[in-house]
């Protein structure tokens, strides 16, 4: 496993991270599989574990905290997120000082930790002054309850505004970004990666395999694989990606991967890691064998001819999309 700094900060992250969004905790057998995946992560050298208060209503944080307890605190980096509703009350969501402080305490209790290495604002809160959000996060860094903070799906304007507010007011500014980024969604290349490089922010993208599209399991003119995400995911995100155009690209990308002797998923992850602004890629492995396969992307340098062929296949053109 290779490690990279979080932007221009000293924190070292494994190039492949383990996220908790798809962690299945429905029953003892599912929990055993999830625990095996965390154990495999340590065996592979993974040190970055991403979670959020909203994942499984807090159960994902509790599970992760229990799974990490057998390891020294210095061995791992933990992140969580805040924004989405965690109750029916008027102050049970968003990025107000009240909600952030209260929810961080709950996340720390769930995880059984004294501090978080990284704390992300899951989405932008238009109902709270951005100055208030920046100030409370800076205060939490000074108090030692979080070491670094960042944002997930924020627009370029929102990110730069937060950076400048912190600079102008002597606050601890954001250190990391966690946007979506994969071969099927490259919007961060247009502005956000440039912002990260200019201000020294680390980028730790989620959904690097486009909900499973880039694993190669979904193929043109073939039925959906039994038990795959496309057969059960409530929000149908993967189903919206299964277009004829995307599946044709998957066929061609699979040819590139085969020529290099790697799975399509490894090609897709190594392609993301080609960018120097990327600090780590958050993978959503649901089984240990998936994580072991993904780990092969760490340190894999794709030859230029393969990168050129991928660029031709993807045929990317900058566009504007709604963030968040």
Describe the structure.
This protein has a single domain (3-210, 274-299), classed as Alpha-Beta Barrel (TIM Barrel), CATH 3.20.20. Helix 1 runs parallel beside helix 10 (288-295). With 324 residues, it is of the alpha/beta class. It has eleven helices and ten strands. The strands form two sheets. It has an eight-stranded parallel beta sheet with strand order 9-8-7-6-5-4-3-10. The chain has helices at residues 28-44, 59-68, 97-111, 130-142, 156-168, 192-199, 237-241, 244-260, 264-273, 288-295, 304-314; strands at 3-5, 12-14, 16-19, 48-50, 77-82, 116-123, 146-153, 176-177, 202-203, 281-283.
Topology diagram in text:
Elements: E1 3-5, E2 12-14, E3 16-19, H1 28-44, E4 48-50, H2 59-68, E5 77-82, H3 97-111, E6 116-123, H4 130-142, E7 146-153, H5 156-168, E8 176-177, H6 192-199, E9 202-203, H7 237-241, H8 244-260, H9 264-273, E10 281-283, H10 288-295, H11 304-314
Parallel strand pairs: 3-4, 3-10, 4-5, 5-6, 6-7, 7-8, 8-9
Antiparallel strand pairs: 1-2
Helix pairs in contact: 1-2, 1-10, 2-3, 4-5, 8-11
């Amino acid at each position: 496993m290779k490690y990279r700094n979080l932007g221009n900060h000293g924190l070292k992250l494994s190039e492949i991270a383990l996220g908790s969004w798809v962690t299945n905790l429905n029953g003892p057998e599912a929990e055993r599989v999830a625990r095996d995946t965390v154990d495999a992560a340590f065996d592979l050298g993974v040190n970055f574990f991403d979670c959020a208060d909203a994942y499984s209503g807090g159960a994902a944080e509790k599970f992760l905290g229990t799974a990490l307890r057998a390891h020294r605190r210095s061995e791992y980096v933990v992140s969580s997120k805040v924004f989405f509703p965690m109750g029916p009350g008027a102050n049970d969501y968003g990025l107000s000082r009240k909600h952030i402080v209260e929810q961080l305490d709950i996340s720390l209790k769930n995880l059984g930790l004294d501090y978080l290495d990284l704390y992300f604002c899951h989405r932008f809160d238009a109902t709270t002054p951005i100055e208030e959000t920046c100030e409370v996060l800076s205060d939490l860094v000074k108090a030692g309850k979080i070491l670094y903070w960042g944002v997930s799906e924020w627009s370029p304007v929102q990110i730069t505004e937060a950076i400048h507010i912190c600079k102008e007011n002597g606050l601890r500014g954001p250190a990391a970004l966690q946007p979506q980024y994969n071969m099927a969604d490259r919007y961060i290349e247009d502005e956000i990666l440039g912002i990260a490089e200019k201000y020294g922010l680390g980028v730790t993208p989620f959904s690097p395999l486009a909900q499973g599209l880039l694993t190669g399991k979904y193929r043109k003119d073939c039925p959906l694989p039994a038990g795959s995400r496309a057969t059960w995911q409530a929000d149908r995100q993967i189903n919206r990606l299964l277009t004829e155009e995307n599946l044709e690209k998957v066929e061609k990308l699979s040819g590139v991967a085969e020529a290099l002797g790697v799975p399509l998923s490894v090609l897709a992850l190594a392609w993301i890691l080609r960018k120097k602004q990327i600090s780590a890629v958050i993978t959503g492995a649901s089984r240990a064998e998936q994580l072991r396969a993904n780990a092969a992307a760490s340190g894999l340098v794709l030859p230029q001819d393969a990168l050129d062929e991928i660029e031709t296949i993807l045929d990317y053109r900058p566009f504007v999309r709604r963030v968040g």
